[in-house]
Amino acid sequence: MDTEPAFFETNATPGVVGLPLDRVDGFAKVTGQAKYSAEYKLPGLTYGVLRTSEIARGRIQSIDTSAAAREPGVIAILTHLNLPKLAKTPNTPDDKKAIGAPMGFLPLTSDQVHYAGQPVALVVADTIERALHAASLVKVQYAVEKPVTSFLDPQAKIFDPEKVQDGKTPGHTRRGNPQEAFAAAPIQLTATYEHAINHHNPMEPGATTAVWDGPERLTVYESTQGVTRTQKALSTMLGLPTEQVRVVTRYLGGGFGCKGSTWPHTILTVQAAKALGRPVCLSLTRPQMFTGMGHREDQHQTLKLGATKEGKLTALIHEKTSTTSPWDNYAEPNSRIINLLYNCPTFESTYQLGRANVMTSTFTRAPGEAPGSFAIECSMDDLAYQLGIDPLQIRLLNYADKDPTNGKPWSSKSLKQCYARGAELFGWSKRNPRNGATRNGKYLIGYGMATASYPVHNNQGTARVRLYADGHALVQTGATDLGTGTYTVMTQVAADSLGIAPDKVRFELGDTRLPTAPNSGGSVAAGTVSSSIYMAAQDVWQKLIKQAVTDKKSPLFRAKPADVVVEKGRMQLKADKTKGEDFMTLMKRAEMADIEGMGNGKYGAGYETGMAPGPPARATKTTRAATPCTPSAPTSARCASTRKWAPCASRAG
User: Fold this and answer.
1) pTM for the predicted model, two decimal places
2) Is the dihedral of CA 193, 197, 201, 202 positive or negative?
3) Cα separation of 284 and 290, whole Å?
4) Measured between alpha carbons, how far is 522 from 369 in angstroms, rounded to an integer?
C-alpha cells in the first residue's frame, strides 16, 4: 500500500531521525579500529585465565600449583588462600544489596564449591597462551558431595519464595476467585510448558582489563551493559569512593542481559591486578560463558484457561516452578504478561523454586515476558483450535479495553488496528485454516500470529552537549552501545536537536567520566539517552537565545526569548521568520569559541512533560509485541491512572 491508515503515526517533515544513515561506528568495526574490553594494550599487561571446578558441590581439600608455577611466563597463581581481601562481598544479603550483585556468593572467598564451573584459581602469565596452559596444570583435590541438579531432582526442596526477582516481584497474585471460575467453566484447558536453561553467549565473551593507576585509583575496561552500575559495584566491594573507580566500555559485542550485572570474573581480575601491581586482562573462554554470567532458568509453567463455549475467558491460573541457586530467590516474573494481555475476570499466579547447585540465573532477553508470552499465546491458540475459532478472532473476543488488573482505562491503545493491518499484510483471511493443508512442494506452510508486550521501565539520565562556533558539536553521555546502534541513533538525535549535519556531530559514550546514564537493557537506553541529549541541546539554545536578545548587533535584539524559535540551527522570530540568524554568526560575533549545555532526560510513565526549558520532549514509549503487522505501528498503550502499559503490535525503533 502507498499510504498507511490514519491510526499509524507518521512524520510529515522528517529530519535526520528516521532517514537512512550509515552506521557511525561501522567503519571502526570493519577496519578493526574499534577496541573491545580485552583489546587494550597497556604497558606491562598480563593475562589471566580462570581454573574452574570439575565438580558441582563439595570442598577444596588442596590445590597443587607447583607444575603450573614452573611454566615459562607464569607470574602468579591466586586462590582463596592468597587473593587480596575485599571491603565487601555479596556473601550476605545486606552486602549483596549494597553492591547490587547478581549472585549472593563470590568464588575464591572460601574453600566451598557450589556449582560446576565455579572459579577455584586464577592463573596470570605474560601471554594468554601461557596462562591457558598453566591453568590446565593446576591440580585441585576435592571432598565431593552429591549435588542437586535442578528443581526436578528428587533431592531438591521445593519452596514458596513469597517474592521473586530478589524481592522485586510478589510470588502470589490473585484477582477474583479463579479456582471456582475454572471449576465452573464449560471449557477447560490445562497445559504445561517445559523450558530448558537458555544461555546468552553473545559474540564477545565476558572480558575485563583492569589497571590500578595508583594505590587507590582504578580503571577497568569492561564488557558491561552499564558502566555506572559496574562502577558502583566495584567501588562498594573495594571500599573506594565512586569517583576513584573509572569504568570504560567503548564497544560491546552483544549482551542480551548477561552483561547487565557485575559477575565474579570482573572483581577477580581487579583483585589480581592489585596483587601484581600490573594490568591484568581476563576473557572468559567460550565454555566458561555457560557457567560464568548467569542464564535463563530451567522452568515449567502450568497454565489453566477457563472459558465459555463461545471462547470468552472466565479464569486464568498460572503456576511456575523453576531452579534457583543455593543463595538467591531469582525467577523471571512470567505471570506479569499473562495477567495483562487479555480481559479475564479472574486471575491467579504462584511461583515455586527449587535450590540446586547452579549459579544464579539472571536477565535474559525479555525476562518473564518471553516465556510468559509463549505460555499464554500457545494456550490461546489451543483454545481457538478446540472451539474451532479463528486464532485472531479469539484474541479480539478477549480484547482488554481496560487494564484487567484494575479495570481502569488505557491512555491509548491501537492493538485492534494493528491486528487488522497485520492480517491484511499477511493475507490472513486467504489462508487455509486447516492444519497441514497448505504446502509448497514438499514443505508444509504454516500461518500463525501472536501478541506480546514489553514493559516501559522508568529511568533517567544526563547528557552534555558542547556546540562550537565552527559548526560542529561534541555530545557525551555515559551510556553503552550493545552493538544495536546507539552511536548512530544518538548522532541522529543530536543532529536534529542542534540543526546540524550528522557528520558534524561527535558522539562519545561508555565512560563513567561522562554524564551518568542507565544500563543498556530493558529497552531504556534509546528513550533515556535521546531525551537527555535533546534536553541538553535545549539548554544550549536557551543560552544562545539569551545571548542574541541582548546583543545589539543581532536581528533578535530586545526580542522576548519566548518569541524566538529555532529551526535547523537558526534562531528566528515566530511571527517573522525573516528576522533571525544562525548560531555560528552569533557565536563568532560574540567571540564565543563554544557553548555547553546539560540535560536531564527522563523516560517512562510519568515523564511525559516538563523536563527542562524549551519545548517539551515528545514521549517515546516503547512497548513491543509480535504480530504479523507492519513495524511502523504505534507502540504504546498506558493506563492513565496506574501508568501501566498495555500491549501493542510492534516495536518502534
Assistant:
1) 0.89
2) positive
3) 10
4) 11
